[in-house]
Structures are given as structure tokens and as C-alpha cells.
Amino acid sequence: MILYDEGWSYTAIAHALLLSDEAIRKHIDDFIRENKLKPENGGSEARLDSEQTTKLLAHLDEQIYVDVKDICDYVWMQFGVAYSRSGMTQWLRRNGFSYHKPAPVPAKADKARQEAFIAFYENLKKTLSDHEKIVFMDGVHPPPTKHVWLMVGYAKVYARNRHCYTTCLPEYGQARGRSPEGNGLSA
Q: Where are the domains of the chain?
């Protein structure tokens, strides 16, 4: 506070004390708002009760998140409890989660689906009118896998083909088209 009172900038104080600008801002704001001089570290009390924690853990077991901000938004919408990014990151780490890249598993060919497609394709060729054509497009490579929040010691398995869009990275959307089942290309 003495350096701040002498007109030093947050950056200069942070440099002199070997702290971050954000830490200096927080300490000065704490003093201005609450006349607080000493940091009272040691963590805060849990914001989620045990039932909410259990529900969130079950949700995180089902849903993959790329950004901790999305988890904060989910907690706010479901439980009305606000977390900062750093607060939620600490909560995730305390509850056994880590932020890492999941290991891809190659997709396996489904012989029955391949045979169904061949039959569908042969039938389609026979039923085309003179002005219709069949056009093939090169397959789209899946987007690069991002880091995600996963429970330590548990693996989330996903296929490296089109299934990746729906089970691993939902923000990419999914391709649609005709298939033998008539419900689009996505599984």
C-alpha cells in the first residue's frame, strides 16, 4: 500500500515484489473495500453442497468440456452458484480432474454397415434418372483434438472418424447427408 500511495503503478509494484499485476490489484482492492492488509489465504468454503457436488461429478462423467468457463456456466445455470475460472479450476483439481489431451482410438470398420451401403449404392445407381449424377466427396479429417477436462485415471474413448464430432468435440457440428438408414451420416 505504501508503494501505491507513493504513485507506483500496479506493474511497477508487481515487478518490485515479484508478484503478478492481478495479485497486486486484488490486494489493493481488498484494502480499499475492506481495509484488509494481510492476505488470509487457506481457501474458501465449498460453494457446492454434497448433493450438488455429486450431481456435477455425474454430469462431468457424461459431458466433455474443453473450456472451464463452460463448466462455470453450467454450474450457474443448474445450481445458481457462481465460480470464477480459477475457482472452478481449483475445484476440478481437488475433485480429481486434469486438463489433458485424450488419446485417440482408431475406428473399426463395420462389415454389416459396409454391405448395407453397397446395396444402397447399387440400388441408387439403378434408380437414377438421366439428368442425375452421383458425386463423391473426399472425407473430412476430424479437427485436431483439443485438451479437455477429464477425471484422472479414466479414459474417454472416441473414434477418429466422423463419430468424433458427436462424442468428443460437440462445438464442431456434424455433417449431414443420405445414408442407407436415411437418417444422415452422423451416428
A: 2-34, 50-95
